[in-house]
Design a protein that fits this description.
This protein has six helices and twelve strands. It is elongated. It is about 25% helix and about 35% strand. Strand 8, helix 4 (about 130-140) and strand 9 (about 145) form a beta-alpha-beta unit. The protein has helices at about 35-50, 60-70, 110-115, 130-140, 155, 170-175, and strands at about 1-5, 5-15, 25-30, 55-60, 75-80, 90-95, 100-105, 125, 145, 165, 185, 190-200. Strands 2, 3, 4, 5, 6, 7, 8, 9, 10, 11 and 12 form an eleven-stranded mixed β-sheet that branches. About 40% of the residues are buried.
Length: about 200
């Protein structure tokens, strides 16, 4: 059974960045803006500002953003799981995490959580977070991804689901749109890491 999943979010950088004389830093971001993401972006922007780098944020679909960063068209990737770099030979991970967030099942009733863990009812997730695909496979959940535009409430209201896979930050950012009490499963099994990546030199 699950114990707890910790989403450790950091950055992937393009390996050619070390050789760049530019004072601009272009970072691809595929997650929807909310208060918590804005706060993290502010920290990153300030940190690079102290290095005389101006951060240019590029909102792009997740796969496109990764491809552009791998090719050197962007300097870095924002908030990625650590295994993502395995498929992109020119990306390297910055090991210092930006933030920690737990991944959980959020359910309309405790019974729904139990049934989802047994694979008896479907679990929806925000397809912008690739880590959820890993969780679904490793935990044998019956999942499907939906383009939620960062609002997990969509999965309950429009997709008529009783259980979703989400993280603390995503849920907290959408509490105002949730129309009911949710139960959070505490049975999460493994830790999954996410990082900031850059391209290799």
């Amino acid at each position: 059974m699950f114990n707890k999943l910790i989403l450790v979010m950091a950055i992937l950088l393009n390996s050619n960045l070390a050789n760049s004389a530019s004072n601009e830093m272009s970072i691809g971001i595929a997650v929807k803006e909310n208060k918590y993401i804005a706060d993290i972006k502010g920290i990153v922007t300030q940190a690079y500002g102290e290095l005389d780098k101006t951060v240019i944020w590029k909102n792009l679909p997740t796969s496109r953003s990764l491809r552009l960063t791998n090719k050197g068209k962007l300097d870095a990737e924002f908030l990625r799981v650590s295994s993502v770099a395995d498929g992109y030979k020119d990306l390297i991970k910055i090991n210092t995490p930006l933030i920690y967030a737990s991944i959980n099942l959020y359910c309309k009733t405790p019974r729904d959580c139990e049934m989802a863990l047994q694979g008896r009812i479907p679990v929806g997730y925000n397809m912008s977070y690739k880590i959820y695909e890993q969780v679904c496979k490793k935990e044998y959940l019956s999942c499907y991804g939906v383009n939620t535009n960062g609002d997990p409430h969509v999965l309950f209201k429009h997709n008529k689901l009783d259980v979703i896979l989400s993280n603390d930050l995503e849920i907290a950012a959408s509490l105002s749109s949730l129309e009911q009490v949710l139960f959070k499963s505490k049975k999460i099994r493994r830790c999954y890491r996410a990082s900031l990546y850059k391209q290799k030199t």
